Amino acid sequence: MATTTSEERLYLLITEMIPLIEAKITQLEQRQGAAGTRRGVPNNAGEMDLDNLETLAVRLQRIKSWLENDPTLKTVLNQHLTTVNEQNQQREASRAWSIAIVTTIIGVVLGWLSSLLAAPATLWHLLGH
């Protein structure tokens, strides 16, 4: 199985997104045509409007052509994505260590308290005073 670099994955993602966005544009055009609405009129809160989707599609096509034609951009992009990925991995490792240390300390304290309270003499002593 061949491995893909980050710029190849980005290129594939962009290549896959363009037809999806164009299909969404067509769907919105049909819906707006059937409803008799105009461009720029707000629609459902969760949906992008038609103008924004068309702008996004054009920008993705431009990025795709840049990636196809500029090997320097691919190198810079790969270096940047590698750096960001390494930073994210370091942050996640640090977070995992922090969680492990905190949960261990909490477990030790709870274990100590439960063993303290489990001794009958201690329990009677605490209840007697």
Low-confidence stretches: none
Distance between the termini: 72 Å
Please count the beta strands (DSSP E, at least 2 residues each).
Answer: 0
Q: Order of helices and strands, N to C?
A: HHHH
**Largest sheet geometry:** none
Helix content: over 70%
Overall geometry comes to elongated
Rg over CA atoms = 29 Å
Q: Which labels suit this protein?
A:
129 residues, mainly alpha, 0% strand, elongated
Describe this structure in words.
The model has no long low-confidence stretch (mean pLDDT 80). This protein has 129 residues and is mainly α. Helix 1 runs antiparallel to helix 2 (50-69). It is elongated, with a radius of gyration of 29 Å. The protein has helices at residues 6-35, 50-69, 71-118, 120-128.
Secondary-structure map with pairings?
Elements: H1 6-35, H2 50-69, H3 71-118, H4 120-128
Helix pairs in contact: 1-2
Summarize the structure.
With 129 residues, the protein is mainly alpha-helical.
